[in-house]
Design brief:
Layout (H helix, E strand, L loop, with lengths): L10 E4 L5 E4 L4 E3 L18 H36 L20 H14 L7 H4 L21 E5 L3 H13 L3 E3 L8 E4 L1 E3 L2 E2 L3 H8 L3 E4 L1 H9 L12 E2 L8 H8 L9 E6 L11 H10 L3 E2 L13 E6 L4 H6 L7 E4 L2 H9 L16
Protein name: BRCT domain-containing protein
GO molecular function, one term: ubiquitin-protein transferase activity
Pfam family, one: BRCT
Amino acid sequence: MSSPGNHAKGYVRWTAGGKRVMWDGARWQQLCQIEKCFKRDQKSQGVCLIHFREQQENKAKNKNKKFKQEEKSEKIKLTKEKKSSPIKRTSISTRPKRIKSNNSINDSIKVSNTNYQNSDIDVSDPEITERKPSTSNLNPSKSHTPSRTLVLVCSSLTRQQTSQVELFCSRFSARFSNQIDETTTHLIASEVEQRVCCLTKKVFFAVAYHQYVIGYQWIEECLNKQCLLNEDSYEILGDASLSSQHNGMNRSRLIHQPIFQSYSYAIAVECSIGCQQGMFTRQELEQLVQLSGAILLQDNNQQELDLNTTIIVLCDDDDKMVVKKYNGLKNKIYYVIPEFFLDSLVLYEVQPIKGYELLYQID
């Protein structure tokens, strides 16, 4: 960036690259591109976190509105087709009555065969000689028998929905729990739209534990049909903040390996005010780091690090004291906002570090 010259602290300007920046007295800070907003751009999206989330919510609302309109038009189309098509009634002739005759058995067989030929019934049909109970209403592919005891945890459900989950557990011999841990099998999440949920603390932990994240609709369908349905058709595909169809939950469950296992990353948690609007405590974030397969960097293991290990420091915006703390290490170090780690986890794809770096590293 250009030299500040005689600009006063708080001076705002647009760069040649179309970015909005402010001079804070020491360096240029990249701002949110929304006019009259003086928060930092922390998502490499041109806006601050608040406006970034607002944009994502608006996208989700518009998509939901479009989905409902398409569903409504489809229903209208089906109704019109149903009205326009005449109802066809097919009559099936009854089976011939038993023939009473003094003739020989052969004559009786001839008469019987003649009657069958004149009717609509196929003589070769095995159902004529032996009728078996119909099983067409049973669909074994939809029913599901679990190989282990189900342990269910709820996320953002109403009291009534939670009661239904407890009823589900009672009917299908499952266990209800308030805490998510390694024994949990399913997280039942509230849906903002079909197979899309809000990101909660429990969602992050369910992904880290490689567990099912299922929409609440699965509970209702199982109770209504009185059988345990296959949950794959109800698995959450995305969230309202990042993307409605990123399939991160599904990837985590199927891959079933820690997301950072193949990366030489040591992650230090230096967030003093938490992250995601205080969703996590420092201890919880450290637990997620350990579950992710990365090395949790602490004071007692800094000197044991291999020089080829990259250090990722999750820290608050403009926390220069953290930079001084790690200056003595010879490893390659990146100072990023916590969303680098959390986005990588829930998307189950390691995100580019550059998009989450704190700006003072560039100066």
